[in-house]
Amino acid sequence: MAKTALITGILGQDGPYLAKFLLSKGYKVYGMIRRYSNPNFGNLDFLGITDKVEYVDGDMSDESSLYNIVKALRPLEVYNLAAQSFVGRSWDLAKITTEVNALGVLYLLNAIKAYSPMTKFYQASTSEMFGLGNTKGYQDENTTFHPRSPYGISKVYAFWTTVNFRESYGLFTCNGILFNHESPIRGIQFVTRKITDGVAKIKYGLANKLHLGNLDAKRDWGFAGDFVEATHLMLQQKNPDDYVVGTGENHSVREFVELAFKYGGIPNWKKYVVIDPRFKRPAEVPELLAKGDKARKVLGWKPKVSFDELVRMMVEADLKRYKISSKFKIQSSK
Ligand code: NAP
Ligand code: F7E
User: What Gene3D superfamilies does the database record attribute to this sequence (predicted)?
Assistant: First the structure.
Protein backbone atom coordinates (compact mmCIF):
# COMPACT_ATOMS: atom_id res chain seq x y z
CA MET A 1 0.00 0.00 0.00
CA ALA A 2 1.25 3.51 -0.81
CA LYS A 3 2.21 5.72 2.14
CA THR A 4 -1.10 7.53 2.47
CA ALA A 5 -2.75 8.83 5.62
CA LEU A 6 -6.20 10.22 6.26
CA ILE A 7 -6.50 12.64 9.18
CA THR A 8 -9.93 13.57 10.50
CA GLY A 9 -9.98 16.79 12.52
CA ILE A 10 -7.29 18.29 10.25
CA LEU A 11 -8.26 21.89 11.10
CA GLY A 12 -7.86 21.48 14.87
CA GLN A 13 -4.69 21.60 16.96
CA ASP A 14 -3.25 18.10 16.52
CA GLY A 15 -4.25 17.64 12.87
CA PRO A 16 -1.77 20.21 11.54
CA TYR A 17 1.11 18.98 13.75
CA LEU A 18 0.50 15.38 12.72
CA ALA A 19 0.12 16.34 9.04
CA LYS A 20 3.41 18.24 9.13
CA PHE A 21 5.15 15.27 10.74
CA LEU A 22 3.72 12.77 8.23
CA LEU A 23 4.61 15.02 5.28
CA SER A 24 8.20 15.11 6.57
CA LYS A 25 8.14 11.28 6.46
CA GLY A 26 7.04 11.25 2.81
CA TYR A 27 3.33 10.52 3.30
CA LYS A 28 0.59 11.75 1.03
CA VAL A 29 -1.77 13.35 3.55
CA TYR A 30 -5.54 13.67 3.15
CA GLY A 31 -7.37 15.88 5.61
CA MET A 32 -11.09 15.53 6.23
CA ILE A 33 -13.02 18.74 6.75
CA ARG A 34 -16.69 19.41 7.40
CA ARG A 35 -18.54 21.16 4.61
CA TYR A 36 -18.46 24.64 6.00
CA SER A 37 -19.26 27.91 4.31
CA ASN A 38 -15.89 29.19 5.50
CA PRO A 39 -13.46 26.57 6.88
CA ASN A 40 -10.67 27.97 9.04
CA PHE A 41 -7.22 27.01 7.74
CA GLY A 42 -5.45 29.25 10.29
CA ASN A 43 -3.73 26.42 12.17
CA LEU A 44 -2.44 24.81 8.98
CA ASP A 45 -1.29 28.25 7.80
CA PHE A 46 0.55 28.72 11.11
CA LEU A 47 2.58 25.58 10.35
CA GLY A 48 2.95 26.51 6.67
CA ILE A 49 1.35 23.35 5.21
CA THR A 50 -2.11 24.41 3.98
CA ASP A 51 -1.22 23.73 0.33
CA LYS A 52 0.52 20.43 1.04
CA VAL A 53 -2.55 18.57 2.26
CA GLU A 54 -5.34 17.27 0.02
CA TYR A 55 -8.81 17.86 1.45
CA VAL A 56 -11.86 15.62 1.40
CA ASP A 57 -15.33 16.53 2.65
CA GLY A 58 -16.83 14.46 5.43
CA ASP A 59 -18.55 14.58 8.77
CA MET A 60 -18.23 12.13 11.64
CA SER A 61 -21.98 12.22 12.16
CA ASP A 62 -22.68 11.35 8.51
CA GLU A 63 -21.99 7.64 8.03
CA SER A 64 -22.16 7.62 4.25
CA SER A 65 -19.58 10.41 3.91
CA LEU A 66 -17.10 8.26 5.86
CA TYR A 67 -17.88 5.19 3.77
CA ASN A 68 -17.30 7.14 0.55
CA ILE A 69 -13.98 8.57 1.72
CA VAL A 70 -12.56 5.25 2.93
CA LYS A 71 -13.76 3.45 -0.21
CA ALA A 72 -12.16 6.05 -2.48
CA LEU A 73 -8.83 6.43 -0.65
CA ARG A 74 -8.17 3.07 1.03
CA PRO A 75 -5.42 4.76 3.05
CA LEU A 76 -2.54 2.97 4.71
CA GLU A 77 -3.31 4.78 7.99
CA VAL A 78 -6.31 6.62 9.41
CA TYR A 79 -5.84 8.99 12.35
CA ASN A 80 -9.19 9.81 13.90
CA LEU A 81 -8.67 13.17 15.59
CA ALA A 82 -12.10 14.66 14.88
CA ALA A 83 -14.17 15.37 17.98
CA GLN A 84 -16.24 17.82 19.93
CA SER A 85 -13.22 18.03 22.20
CA PHE A 86 -14.11 20.79 24.66
CA VAL A 87 -14.98 19.12 27.98
CA GLY A 88 -16.47 22.31 29.43
CA ARG A 89 -19.19 22.55 26.75
CA SER A 90 -19.94 18.83 26.62
CA TRP A 91 -22.69 19.02 29.29
CA ASP A 92 -24.64 21.49 27.12
CA LEU A 93 -23.80 19.60 23.92
CA ALA A 94 -24.07 16.05 25.21
CA LYS A 95 -25.97 14.63 22.22
CA ILE A 96 -23.71 16.01 19.50
CA THR A 97 -20.64 15.17 21.61
CA THR A 98 -21.83 11.56 21.78
CA GLU A 99 -22.77 11.34 18.10
CA VAL A 100 -19.46 12.70 16.86
CA ASN A 101 -17.05 11.25 19.42
CA ALA A 102 -18.67 7.86 20.01
CA LEU A 103 -20.91 6.87 17.09
CA GLY A 104 -18.59 8.58 14.60
CA VAL A 105 -15.88 6.08 15.55
CA LEU A 106 -18.25 3.17 15.03
CA TYR A 107 -19.14 4.52 11.56
CA LEU A 108 -15.50 5.03 10.61
CA LEU A 109 -14.45 1.58 11.79
CA ASN A 110 -17.37 -0.01 9.94
CA ALA A 111 -16.22 1.79 6.79
CA ILE A 112 -12.67 0.46 7.24
CA LYS A 113 -13.94 -3.06 7.90
CA ALA A 114 -16.09 -2.96 4.76
CA TYR A 115 -13.76 -1.26 2.28
CA SER A 116 -10.19 -1.23 3.55
CA PRO A 117 -9.50 -3.84 6.24
CA MET A 118 -5.72 -3.49 5.83
CA THR A 119 -5.88 0.16 6.95
CA LYS A 120 -4.28 0.84 10.33
CA PHE A 121 -6.48 2.92 12.60
CA TYR A 122 -5.56 5.37 15.37
CA GLN A 123 -8.18 6.56 17.84
CA ALA A 124 -7.56 9.79 19.79
CA SER A 125 -8.43 8.55 23.24
CA THR A 126 -7.93 10.71 26.29
CA SER A 127 -6.94 10.92 29.94
CA GLU A 128 -10.45 12.34 30.54
CA MET A 129 -11.65 8.71 30.43
CA PHE A 130 -9.87 8.17 33.76
CA GLY A 131 -11.63 11.05 35.49
CA LEU A 132 -11.65 10.01 39.14
CA GLY A 133 -10.00 6.67 38.32
CA ASN A 134 -6.88 7.50 40.26
CA THR A 135 -6.12 4.95 42.89
CA LYS A 136 -2.34 5.27 43.03
CA GLY A 137 -1.73 8.95 42.37
CA TYR A 138 -1.19 8.35 38.63
CA GLN A 139 -2.92 6.78 35.61
CA ASP A 140 -1.60 4.06 33.34
CA GLU A 141 -3.08 1.49 30.94
CA ASN A 142 -4.48 -0.51 33.89
CA THR A 143 -6.28 2.35 35.61
CA THR A 144 -10.07 2.07 35.86
CA PHE A 145 -12.14 4.51 33.80
CA HIS A 146 -14.41 6.83 35.77
CA PRO A 147 -15.27 9.62 33.33
CA ARG A 148 -16.77 12.84 34.74
CA SER A 149 -18.27 14.49 31.66
CA PRO A 150 -20.31 13.64 28.55
CA TYR A 151 -17.02 14.12 26.68
CA GLY A 152 -15.21 11.54 28.83
CA ILE A 153 -18.11 9.09 28.53
CA SER A 154 -18.23 9.42 24.73
CA LYS A 155 -14.51 8.69 24.54
CA VAL A 156 -14.88 5.56 26.70
CA TYR A 157 -17.37 4.21 24.15
CA ALA A 158 -14.93 5.02 21.34
CA PHE A 159 -12.05 3.41 23.23
CA TRP A 160 -13.86 0.10 23.68
CA THR A 161 -15.22 0.13 20.13
CA THR A 162 -11.64 0.49 18.88
CA VAL A 163 -10.54 -2.43 21.08
CA ASN A 164 -13.55 -4.47 19.99
CA PHE A 165 -12.86 -4.11 16.26
CA ARG A 166 -9.34 -5.37 16.94
CA GLU A 167 -10.58 -8.34 18.95
CA SER A 168 -13.64 -9.19 16.83
CA TYR A 169 -12.41 -8.58 13.28
CA GLY A 170 -8.61 -8.60 13.57
CA LEU A 171 -8.28 -4.97 12.40
CA PHE A 172 -5.10 -3.05 13.24
CA THR A 173 -6.60 -0.52 15.67
CA CYS A 174 -4.81 1.44 18.40
CA ASN A 175 -5.87 3.80 21.16
CA GLY A 176 -3.50 6.56 22.18
CA ILE A 177 -4.61 7.64 25.66
CA LEU A 178 -3.13 11.10 25.47
CA PHE A 179 -2.90 13.48 28.40
CA ASN A 180 -3.32 17.22 27.82
CA HIS A 181 -1.10 18.62 25.10
CA GLU A 182 -0.94 22.23 24.08
CA SER A 183 0.72 24.56 21.60
CA PRO A 184 0.48 28.06 20.14
CA ILE A 185 -2.44 26.79 18.00
CA ARG A 186 -4.40 25.32 20.90
CA GLY A 187 -8.11 26.29 20.76
CA ILE A 188 -8.72 29.54 22.61
CA GLN A 189 -11.37 27.98 24.90
CA PHE A 190 -8.88 25.62 26.58
CA VAL A 191 -7.35 26.98 29.76
CA THR A 192 -3.69 27.18 28.68
CA ARG A 193 -4.36 29.19 25.53
CA LYS A 194 -7.02 31.25 27.29
CA ILE A 195 -4.34 32.24 29.81
CA THR A 196 -1.59 33.02 27.28
CA ASP A 197 -4.03 34.93 25.08
CA GLY A 198 -5.22 36.83 28.18
CA VAL A 199 -1.66 37.68 29.19
CA ALA A 200 -0.97 39.10 25.72
CA LYS A 201 -4.19 41.15 25.74
CA ILE A 202 -3.35 42.58 29.18
CA LYS A 203 0.19 43.35 28.04
CA TYR A 204 -1.09 45.37 25.08
CA GLY A 205 -3.83 47.12 27.08
CA LEU A 206 -6.65 45.25 25.30
CA ALA A 207 -8.00 43.74 28.56
CA ASN A 208 -7.49 44.29 32.25
CA LYS A 209 -8.97 41.09 33.67
CA LEU A 210 -8.71 37.36 33.01
CA HIS A 211 -11.73 35.31 34.15
CA LEU A 212 -10.95 31.72 35.13
CA GLY A 213 -12.56 28.81 37.01
CA ASN A 214 -10.81 26.23 39.20
CA LEU A 215 -7.16 27.18 39.67
CA ASP A 216 -6.47 24.07 41.78
CA ALA A 217 -7.03 21.56 38.96
CA LYS A 218 -3.83 19.76 37.99
CA ARG A 219 -2.98 18.50 34.52
CA ASP A 220 -0.07 16.67 32.90
CA TRP A 221 0.61 19.20 30.12
CA GLY A 222 2.91 18.45 27.19
CA PHE A 223 3.59 19.86 23.71
CA ALA A 224 1.30 18.74 20.85
CA GLY A 225 4.23 18.59 18.41
CA ASP A 226 5.87 15.91 20.57
CA PHE A 227 2.70 13.93 21.19
CA VAL A 228 1.74 13.41 17.53
CA GLU A 229 5.02 11.55 17.03
CA ALA A 230 3.86 8.97 19.59
CA THR A 231 0.61 8.47 17.66
CA HIS A 232 2.53 7.71 14.47
CA LEU A 233 4.82 5.27 16.29
CA MET A 234 1.81 3.28 17.53
CA LEU A 235 0.83 2.44 13.95
CA GLN A 236 4.39 1.36 13.07
CA GLN A 237 4.49 -1.48 15.64
CA LYS A 238 4.14 -5.14 14.71
CA ASN A 239 0.95 -5.51 16.74
CA PRO A 240 -1.82 -3.05 17.55
CA ASP A 241 -2.14 -1.96 21.18
CA ASP A 242 -3.20 0.89 23.50
CA TYR A 243 -0.77 3.33 25.09
CA VAL A 244 -0.84 6.08 27.72
CA VAL A 245 1.10 9.15 26.55
CA GLY A 246 2.04 11.97 28.91
CA THR A 247 5.02 13.75 30.41
CA GLY A 248 4.86 12.19 33.90
CA GLU A 249 4.78 15.64 35.52
CA ASN A 250 1.73 17.66 36.48
CA HIS A 251 1.06 21.29 37.42
CA SER A 252 -1.92 23.27 38.65
CA VAL A 253 -3.76 25.87 36.60
CA ARG A 254 -2.44 28.39 39.17
CA GLU A 255 1.18 27.42 38.35
CA PHE A 256 0.45 27.85 34.65
CA VAL A 257 -0.98 31.32 35.34
CA GLU A 258 2.02 32.39 37.45
CA LEU A 259 4.51 31.29 34.80
CA ALA A 260 2.55 32.80 31.91
CA PHE A 261 2.37 36.22 33.60
CA LYS A 262 6.07 35.94 34.39
CA TYR A 263 6.93 35.29 30.71
CA GLY A 264 4.58 38.08 29.72
CA GLY A 265 6.62 40.42 31.93
CA ILE A 266 3.54 41.30 34.04
CA PRO A 267 4.15 41.37 37.82
CA ASN A 268 1.43 40.46 40.33
CA TRP A 269 -0.94 38.19 38.36
CA LYS A 270 -3.43 38.26 41.25
CA LYS A 271 -4.35 41.82 40.27
CA TYR A 272 -5.75 40.58 36.96
CA VAL A 273 -7.21 37.10 37.59
CA VAL A 274 -10.88 36.90 38.58
CA ILE A 275 -12.36 33.62 39.81
CA ASP A 276 -15.58 33.27 37.85
CA PRO A 277 -18.11 30.50 38.65
CA ARG A 278 -19.16 30.42 34.97
CA PHE A 279 -15.92 28.56 34.24
CA LYS A 280 -16.35 25.91 36.94
CA ARG A 281 -17.67 22.53 35.81
CA PRO A 282 -20.61 20.48 37.14
CA ALA A 283 -18.12 17.68 37.86
CA GLU A 284 -14.38 18.34 37.83
CA VAL A 285 -11.44 16.04 37.20
CA PRO A 286 -9.19 17.36 39.95
CA GLU A 287 -5.88 15.80 38.97
CA LEU A 288 -4.33 13.83 36.12
CA LEU A 289 -0.81 12.43 35.96
CA ALA A 290 0.47 10.00 33.33
CA LYS A 291 2.58 6.96 33.99
CA GLY A 292 3.66 6.39 30.43
CA ASP A 293 6.29 3.67 30.93
CA LYS A 294 4.81 1.43 28.21
CA ALA A 295 5.06 4.15 25.52
CA ARG A 296 8.62 4.92 26.58
CA LYS A 297 9.65 1.26 26.55
CA VAL A 298 7.76 -0.12 23.54
CA LEU A 299 7.58 2.97 21.31
CA GLY A 300 10.85 4.54 22.49
CA TRP A 301 8.96 7.83 22.81
CA LYS A 302 9.64 10.62 25.27
CA PRO A 303 8.65 14.29 25.34
CA LYS A 304 11.21 16.89 24.29
CA VAL A 305 9.55 20.17 25.36
CA SER A 306 9.37 20.88 29.13
CA PHE A 307 6.45 22.54 30.94
CA ASP A 308 8.45 25.74 31.32
CA GLU A 309 9.36 25.82 27.60
CA LEU A 310 5.76 25.12 26.64
CA VAL A 311 4.39 28.04 28.65
CA ARG A 312 7.05 30.36 27.27
CA MET A 313 6.45 29.22 23.67
CA MET A 314 2.71 29.87 23.98
CA VAL A 315 3.08 33.27 25.65
CA GLU A 316 5.63 34.39 23.06
CA ALA A 317 3.38 33.32 20.18
CA ASP A 318 0.40 35.24 21.59
CA LEU A 319 2.49 38.32 22.33
CA LYS A 320 3.68 38.21 18.72
CA ARG A 321 0.11 37.93 17.41
CA TYR A 322 -1.06 40.97 19.38
CA LYS A 323 2.09 42.91 18.61
CA ILE A 324 1.47 42.43 14.90
CA SER A 325 -2.22 43.33 15.17
CA SER A 326 -1.59 46.41 17.37
CA LYS A 327 1.10 47.56 14.89
CA PHE A 328 -1.39 47.04 12.07
CA LYS A 329 -4.01 49.10 13.94
CA ILE A 330 -1.55 51.95 14.50
CA GLN A 331 -0.52 51.89 10.83
CA SER A 332 -4.06 51.70 9.48
CA SER A 333 -5.28 54.54 11.73
CA LYS A 334 -2.60 56.87 10.36
P1 NAP B 1 -9.53 20.21 18.35
O2 NAP B 1 -8.52 21.29 18.20
O3 NAP B 1 -10.81 20.50 19.05
O4 NAP B 1 -9.84 19.67 16.89
C5 NAP B 1 -10.92 18.79 16.66
C6 NAP B 1 -11.30 18.82 15.20
O7 NAP B 1 -12.41 17.94 15.02
C8 NAP B 1 -11.73 20.19 14.67
O9 NAP B 1 -10.94 20.54 13.57
C10 NAP B 1 -13.18 19.99 14.26
O11 NAP B 1 -13.53 20.58 13.03
C12 NAP B 1 -13.25 18.49 14.04
N13 NAP B 1 -14.63 18.04 14.15
C14 NAP B 1 -15.51 18.29 15.15
N15 NAP B 1 -16.70 17.73 14.87
C16 NAP B 1 -16.58 17.11 13.67
C17 NAP B 1 -17.44 16.37 12.86
N18 NAP B 1 -18.73 16.17 13.20
N19 NAP B 1 -16.97 15.86 11.71
C20 NAP B 1 -15.71 16.09 11.33
N21 NAP B 1 -14.81 16.81 12.05
C22 NAP B 1 -15.25 17.30 13.21
O23 NAP B 1 -8.88 18.95 19.10
P24 NAP B 1 -7.33 18.59 19.29
O25 NAP B 1 -6.84 19.23 20.52
O26 NAP B 1 -6.62 18.74 18.01
O27 NAP B 1 -7.45 17.04 19.64
C28 NAP B 1 -7.49 16.06 18.62
C29 NAP B 1 -8.17 14.82 19.15
O30 NAP B 1 -7.48 14.33 20.29
C31 NAP B 1 -9.60 15.02 19.62
O32 NAP B 1 -10.32 13.85 19.31
C33 NAP B 1 -9.51 15.17 21.12
O34 NAP B 1 -10.70 14.75 21.74
C35 NAP B 1 -8.35 14.22 21.41
N36 NAP B 1 -7.53 14.55 22.57
C37 NAP B 1 -6.99 15.79 22.69
C38 NAP B 1 -6.15 16.07 23.76
C39 NAP B 1 -5.50 17.42 23.91
O40 NAP B 1 -5.00 17.70 25.01
N41 NAP B 1 -5.44 18.23 22.87
C42 NAP B 1 -5.85 15.05 24.68
C43 NAP B 1 -6.40 13.79 24.50
C44 NAP B 1 -7.22 13.54 23.43
P45 NAP B 1 -13.89 22.14 12.85
O46 NAP B 1 -12.56 22.79 12.70
O47 NAP B 1 -14.70 22.11 11.62
O48 NAP B 1 -14.62 22.55 14.08
O1 F7E C 1 -9.24 22.48 31.26
C2 F7E C 1 -9.63 24.14 34.51
C3 F7E C 1 -10.69 23.13 34.08
O4 F7E C 1 -10.47 22.95 29.14
C5 F7E C 1 -8.15 22.12 32.07
C6 F7E C 1 -9.15 18.67 26.04
O7 F7E C 1 -8.17 18.75 25.04
O8 F7E C 1 -7.58 17.79 27.62
C9 F7E C 1 -8.51 18.84 27.40
O10 F7E C 1 -9.52 18.82 28.40
C11 F7E C 1 -8.45 22.38 33.52
C12 F7E C 1 -9.82 21.86 33.99
O13 F7E C 1 -8.82 21.01 29.28
C14 F7E C 1 -10.74 27.39 33.34
O15 F7E C 1 -11.72 23.06 35.04
C16 F7E C 1 -9.95 26.55 35.17
O17 F7E C 1 -9.69 21.29 35.24
O18 F7E C 1 -7.98 23.29 29.23
P19 F7E C 1 -9.15 22.53 29.65
P20 F7E C 1 -9.40 19.63 29.77
O21 F7E C 1 -10.79 19.74 30.30
O22 F7E C 1 -8.39 19.01 30.65
C23 F7E C 1 -8.15 16.46 27.60
C24 F7E C 1 -7.04 15.48 27.82
C25 F7E C 1 -8.97 16.23 26.40
O26 F7E C 1 -9.08 15.11 25.93
C27 F7E C 1 -9.86 17.33 25.95
O28 F7E C 1 -10.28 17.15 24.61
O29 F7E C 1 -8.50 23.81 33.71
N30 F7E C 1 -10.00 25.53 34.27
N31 F7E C 1 -10.40 27.69 34.63
C32 F7E C 1 -10.48 26.03 33.11
N33 F7E C 1 -10.68 25.44 31.92
C34 F7E C 1 -11.15 26.23 30.91
N35 F7E C 1 -11.33 25.67 29.70
N36 F7E C 1 -11.44 27.56 31.10
C37 F7E C 1 -11.24 28.19 32.28
O38 F7E C 1 -11.51 29.38 32.43
Answer: NAD(P)-binding Rossmann-like Domain, UDP-galactose 4-epimerase, domain 1
Residues with catalytic annotation? 126, 128, 151
Q: State the Cα–Cα distance between residues 301 and 248, nearest whole angstrom.
A: 13
DSSP label at residue 48? T
CA 286 to ligand 2: nearest atom: 17
- CB of 191 within 6 A of ligand 2: the answer is yes
Ligand 1 pocket residue status of 102, Cβ below 6 Å: no
Nearest to 32 by CA among 67, 183, 313, 93: 67
As a whole number of angstroms, the distance between CA 32 and CA 290 comes to 30
Closest listed residue to residue 285, CA positions, set 137, 169, 156, 127: 127
CA distances from 117 to 75, 80, 105, 130 (A): 10, 16, 15, 30
Q: pTM, whole model, 2 decimals? A: 0.97
Contact yes or no for 257/273 (Cβ under 8 A):
yes
Q: How does pLDDT run along the chain (334 residues), one tens digit per residue?
A: 679 999 999 999 999 999 999 999 999 999 999 987 789 999 999 999 999 999 999 999 999 999 999 999 999 999 999 999 999 999 999 999 999 999 999 999 999 999 999 999 999 999 999 999 877 899 999 999 999 999 999 999 999 999 999 999 999 999 999 999 999 999 999 999 999 999 999 999 999 999 999 999 999 999 999 999 999 999 999 999 999 999 999 999 999 999 999 999 999 999 999 999 999 999 999 999 999 999 999 999 999 999 999 999 999 999 999 987 666 554 443 3
What domains sit in the chain, N to C, each tagged with a CATH number? Answer: 4-182+222-245 (3.40.50.720), 191-219+250-282+306-329 (3.90.25.10)
Distance 218 CA to ligand 2 centre (A): 10
Q: How far apart are CA 333 and CA 312, in angstroms?
A: 31
One-letter identity of residue 86: F
| Interval between CA 85 and ligand 1 midpoint (Å) | 5
**Among protein residues, the one whose CA lies closest to atom 24 of ligand 2:** 180
